[in-house]
Sequence to fold (517 residues):
Amino acid sequence: MGRTVVARASEIPPGGCRLILVNGEGIGVFNVAGNFYAVRNACPHQGGPLCLGEVTGTTQSDDPAEVRWVRAGEIVRCPWHNWEFDILTGRALFNPNRRVKTYPVTLEAEQGEDGSRPSDGDALVVVVEA
Amino acid sequence: MSEATAKTEERGRVPRPGEVPVTVVDCDVHPYPESPEMLREYLPEPWRSANIPTRRDIYLSPNQGQRRDARPDTGGHPGSDPALLERQLFEEAGVDYAILLPFGSVGSVPDYRHGAALATAYNDWQIDLWLGKWNGHGRYRGSIVVYEHDTEAAVREIERVAEHPGFVQVLVGTSSFEPFGKHRYHPIWEACARHGLPVAMHLNSALGAALPPTPCGYPSLFIEWHTLYCMNYMTQLVSMLCEGVFEKFPDLKMVFVEGGSAWLAPLMWRLDKDWRSVRWSVPWLKRPPSGYLRDHVRFTTQPIEEPADRRQLLTLFEMMDAEHILMFATDYPHWDFDDPGRALPPQLPAELRRRIMSENARELYSLPATRPSVSDLKPSEQPHRLS
Fold:
């Protein structure tokens, strides 16, 4: 495991995703309503580029005559077969035992190359442990 | 099954004096009126005086669809003489209980008023004869015939006769103008679930008022139609699974009669795969679609698929969970009758054979584990003897 500084937090807007490559492995870093999550860019189904999929919500229903739209922005659908994954946990919605790998993400104060704080002081960077 | 229940079941299999164990439950037997004219007395006017609609086959089955040896000497329709039926089915084939499905195909009658009247007539005819005068031995169970395209009439008919102890299910055809999962049919499924009556769906495609029997139109030949009519069963099954009918009616059971079953496992693979992709479109489903089969759906064996290497059927049985969902049927007196002793592959393990031949049906229809032996019945209860 190593630390990778992905971007300034402000560079990944809510609903957005930044792709990075760590040791040859693709990872998508998502901003879901101000919280950041890192998900492996490979669907556990057939290896499709999951993080290129649509970020969306999902449905719930207790009665076939009614459908509710829930969890807007928390779900990504693989671009190949449209499997739904919970960005927050990496679990497939149809079966929580089917998971995509997730990585810890932290927000840290930005540091200059010499370790000093930059002049704007309060900028945050997104750091993935992968 | 609890241990206590299992022990009771075991004891139930050891017959008391005068009882014999039940080994064959036949889930598809067709009783007929001697001729359609016999139904007149069960019809109100104006239908009593009207022509009686009969099947209008456009694909011609061998022997008019009947076993040639099942025609009574009296000239009546095969399946109309209880004495001949009992000899061929009970004595020769060894059937213990017969689930009766009148082959009226009332759903193919274009006039919904006439169709509903015929359904009522078929039910009163069953109550009078097959579940009445002719059922002294208690080995018949009946099916409530409904005109399924008129939902209100179907529900009224179910309410009218559901409490009769001889009826164990409600009968609908495979042809419809919209798939059976759609909400227009839900009142029928609700009534069946509420009364604890499974719904038996039996072939009636290409008869009377119906859509073409394939999505590509009318094939030329009987062989094509007969091979392909399972598409109706596939469509109705997928519709009922996807539309959440079994979530909405947790007590509902469906029996797919005479549609075959070897296609089931691959169809479920396709369906479950698509569900993984578009689960969001059916969020009322709380399991993969195939996950509803064991609790809600049964299939009957006839016409049993016959691969050249019959052992291959055992693999298909395992894939489709036959141990829990498959039930034996002969389709007597129809031409493609399956014999209880010969239809299933000889390599079938004994316990699986027992589940298919009797136990799955006994559980679904709450049938006893034993029945009175014929010689111990009072004369009035004896099977009808041929004169």
Notes: The radius of gyration of chain B is 20 Å. Residues 112-133 of chain B form the longest helix (22 residues).
